[in-house]
Design a protein that fits this description.
By secondary structure, the chain is mostly helical. It contains two helices and no strands.
């Protein structure tokens, strides 16, 4: 299987997409809050917090898969 389509690489790209979506959602949240919708902003920030909390775990899991994949 080509390296660029390996499981670790694919998961890393999904992770990168997750970070990009998180940033885009934060930009929209800031815009919504500027329009006075603070409750909506708080709700979104709660969801983004969960994403942020999981990001480190996901990245560590990907790193472990990369090491295992290189050992194959």
């Amino acid at each position: 299987m080509p390296t660029e389509y390996s499981l670790p690489d694919t998961l890393d790209r999904i992770y990168t997409n997750q970070l990009a979506l998180e940033a885009a959602i934060m930009e929209l949240t800031l815009l919504i809050e500027q329009q006075g919708h603070t409750e909506v902003g708080e709700n979104v920030r709660g969801a983004l917090y969960a994403i942020g909390e999981n990001a480190g775990h996901i990245k560590q899991g990907i790193a472990k898969l990369v090491l295992q994949h290189r050992g194959d």
